[in-house]
Design goal:
Helix 1 packs antiparallel against helix 2 and helix 1 runs antiparallel to helix 9. It is built from 9 helices and 2 strands, in the order H-H-H-H-H-H-H-E-H-E-H. 78% of the residues lie in helices and 1% in strands. By secondary structure, it is an all-alpha fold. It has a two-stranded antiparallel ribbon. The protein has 2 domains: 245 residues, no CATH class; 63 residues.
Length: 341
Amino acid sequence: MQEIRSAKRAIIFPLIGLAIAWLFFMVGIFTDQLVMVNQYAIDDFSEQELRWSTYLYLIGISAVSVASLLGQRIALVLRNSEDFPLARAAHRFANLGIILSLLAGAIFAIGNFLGAFGGYDRDAPGLVRIFGVYVPIVLATALVVTILLLGFVFRKDAPDLKHERDEDLAKKQRAVGLAYATPILGTAVAILFGLAVYDITRTTLNVWIWVIIQLIIAVSILIGTRFAAKAKLVAVEPKPRKPGVAAVSLNFVLSILFGAVVTLMAFTYGGNAIDSLIDWEAYWEARAPLESKGEEFVAMAPEMRGADLAWWLGDMLPALVLLALAEIGIYKSIVTRNQEA
């Protein structure tokens, strides 16, 4: 009974991380709206101040990563002591949470890199540029590499790899770790190099700079490939194939697909609810007469409406219900499908 409760806790941890991520993303979207309203009020759209939403989004991604990693650790302990279906399902689900959070972290870093060319004004204070662009990329890279190594390389593995000798497993883990980390670190170095050149020269990147960036990434991938080849050459016995594994895996993916779609809807409708707090109608009604007369437009900002009961029930509550539906649906489908007689 204690093992069942622990397996359920391993499933709940990534779901808690998802709820925390949703909350931080919503707060981040709200702070972005406040920044935009202030820009309209002063008629200045240059990015001269630090956007706190960048760190709020990163905290949300980190919450999913860390919570999924904790769930994976619990599932691994269970599988090493007594391997049973619910523990295996919890292990797969935690792995999925880690993979998705790593993907989100990579997209976050690349998005900051691309946004740096049209986002923060390069005439902004140096610290704003550093903490608004460079630091988030470094933190996202550190998060991805750390979670990747802890989640898939340096861990006490499940019974699937118990047939490997400790010495062979150690060699394989080192090689796999370097194979994973080298391309990620190389890409981060290339991104930071491109941003540094962009900030120093204050011009668009020359084609040769892009060639150097791609060269750094290509070399890091080749080095990672060499380490991957070394890991493949480590002598280990092949894992025995089990009948029905493909069908079980497909069923697991299909059950998660529903949760993924509903979760995406929860994030989308939550963001739309926050967007609806801005009253654009009054703004355009005030601006239209000035434009029709050809008069100089006086800076004004759209109004922020209060989050009244109608907004909570009509706009935000559906997003919360969708999030709850996704989390409860994922949890119940995993637990029910792997319940032992």
